[in-house]
Fold this sequence. Notes:
Distance between the termini: 43 Å
Bound molecules: guanosine-5'-triphosphate
Amino acid sequence: MAxxxxxxxxxxxxxxxxxxxxxxxxQGQFVDSYDPTIENTFSKSTTVNSQKYVIxxxxxxxxDEYSIFPVQYSxxxxxxxxxxxxxxxxxxxxxxxxxxxxxxxxxxxxxxVVLVGNKxxxxxxxxxxxxxGRKLAESWNAQFxxxxxxxxxxxADIFQKLLILIERENGPAxxxxxxxxx
Length: 182
Ligand SMILES: Nc1nc2c(ncn2[C@@H]2O[C@H](COP(=O)(O)OP(=O)(O)OP(=O)(O)O)[C@@H](O)[C@H]2O)c(=O)[nH]1
């Protein structure tokens, strides 16, 4: 069966776990060291609903509230993973900012996005409630997940959900209703 190529970029404040989520998804391992990313591209095949996909995953350099949205990420990308850490209110504020800039750069009212609250294993340091995350995602019409890259919790679900969203966005138009009212 033919496979579909999907380009996905992962955004978020510094140190929220973008690289760790990418490496956990692509290589199935967690590296407990911190090495700030400039930009990294990963490739991974996966199957969702019997459709094969090859994902090109671009792990970006951490953004902050002053970052200018890198315009190259608004072109040729099918969907986005927006990550904050549940231990950092600051990272939650930054991700709202990143989302606004992303929409501006794309010139669209909505884009396929999965909002991810990472580091659930650090539950004693939680600073952002699940409810806050869920509400933000709802306001964006996006999907929401909490994950732990460390414990490989819900990491593959991020990409499964995003591929389904992208499919909806790019899929064939719904069949016209052939019912004629006279
Ligand atoms: N406990 C815990 N630590 C995590 C988790 N995910 C990432 N970390 C740690 O958080 C630190 C930053 O992780 P990275 O994956 O490098 O974060 P990043 O968002 O790619 O960082 P930048 O490249 O600076 O933007 C590292 O020390 C990771 O080991 C997680 O789910 N749980």
